[in-house]
Design brief:
Elements: H1 2-11, H2 17-48, H3 54-70, H4 73-81, H5 90-123, H6 125-131, H7 134-151, E1 162-163, E2 166-167, H8 175-211, H9 219-258, H10 262-280, H11 282-293, H12 295-340
Antiparallel strand pairs: 1-2
Helix pairs in contact: 2-3, 2-4, 2-10, 2-11, 2-12, 3-5, 3-7, 3-11, 5-6, 5-7, 5-8, 5-9, 8-9, 9-10, 9-11, 11-12
Length: 341
């Protein structure tokens, strides 16, 4: 009976009980994992990594994007815990929507850039030394931020509309809004998924052909080859698990909503929710990329872990010595008191 009440209460704002459950469970897990893991990665990149490389520049920007998006998840959680009631300011609603697409497409382009860098390093090592520089990497990251920021500006138009007497967020109000979103979806689909995915597949096809063209790998290059394999596995997994399902299902759902095919729209709605959760979870998968595909990151992370462990042990030893001296001093005081008595 309580379930029915919840469903009725949530449906008043076009927020189904399935959507409520899916988002609250997903964001509850994603926020601590994504925020802490990427914050730790930023600490390693900025404070512990002595040898900065071009890959480090792109990974640092990717971690910054994930941290910024993770900071908006508590507001989304509060919204769904309150049965789709938005109690914050309108600009914050717009910022949360904007940050999702900023994170989604900056992640796609940063991962694509890392794939191109690995392609140049493995297939064209001589060209890589002359073409790839820190200055160009910083400029490339800046261009990605500006490009995605400009293309995502229309999402700042959507604020917190009133639906059935409640202030909502993350909801599309009517068919007019669906028609406005559909062209944006086509732009995101082409420039934010299809073209980067084709580039990645081309790069990895050439990398795999180069890596396994000779049966016997030189020992000094084996580590580099395995890093390339790890990079391929992590990035392809992220694209196939996070980005591809969301863009495919979102396109089908928008087409059904614009054409007013209610049956297909209702059927695809829950699938859109699942794929959006999968797309948002990319911020939790990216730290795996830093660890398995970045040798400098693993070295710096291990060094930082050892320092923290040694520091903790030293603090424990000092504390135990202090406690022992305090107990010894207290015991001496008691003996002196007993002698005086």
């Amino acid at each position: 009976m309580s379930l029915v009440v919840k469903n009725d209460s949530l449906n008043e704002t076009n927020c189904t009980y399935f959507k409520y459950q899916a988002y609250t469970i997903t964001y509850t897990i994603m926020f601590p994992v994504g925020f802490l893991a990427n914050l730790a990665a930023l600490f390693v990149f900025l404070r512990q990594t002595t040898k900065k490389t071009v890959n480090t520049v792109f990974m640092t920007n990717l971690a910054i994007s994930d941290v910024c998006f993770s900071l908006t998840l508590p507001f989304r959680l509060i919204y769904y815990f309150k049965k789709c009631q938005w109690d914050f300011s309108d600009w914050l609603c717009r910022l949360c929507i904007y940050s999702f697409y900023m994170n989604l497409y900056t992640s796609v382009l940063f991962l694509t850039s890392l794939s191109v860098l690995r392609y140049l390093a493995v297939v064209h090592p001589i060209l890589n030394k002359t073409l790839v520089t820190m200055r160009r990497a910083i400029l490339g990251c800046f261009c990605i931020w500006v490009f995605v920021a400009i293309l995502s500006l229309p999402f700042l138009i959507s604020g917190s509309p009133h639906v059935n007497g409640k202030i909502s967020c993350f909801e599309v109000k009517n068919k007019t809004n669906w028609k406005r979103i559909e062209p944006l979806n086509h732009v995101g689909l082409v420039f934010g998924f299809l073209i980067p995915f084709i580039i990645i597949l081309g790069c990895y096809g050439c990398i795999i052909q180069r890596l396994f063209s000779s049966r016997i790998l030189q020992k000094r290059r084996q580590s580099q080859h395995w890093r390339s394999v790890y990079l391929i596995i992590v990035i392809l997994s992220t694209f196939l698990l996070c980005f591809a399902p969301y863009h495919i299902v979102r396109t089908l759902h928008l087409r059904a909503a614009v054409s007013e095919n209610k049956e297909q729209e209702t059927y695809l709605l829950d699938i859109v929710v699942i794929t959006r959760c999968m797309a948002a979870s990319n911020c939790c998968l990216n730290p795996l990329l830093y660890y398995f595909a970045g040798e400098n990151f693993r070295t710096s992370f291990s060094r930082a872990s050892r320092r923290m462990t040694i520091s903790s042990l030293n603090d424990s030893i000092r504390l135990s010595r202090y406690s022992w001296s305090q107990r010894k001093r207290l015991g001496s005081q008691r003996m002196d008191t007993a002698e005086l008595g």
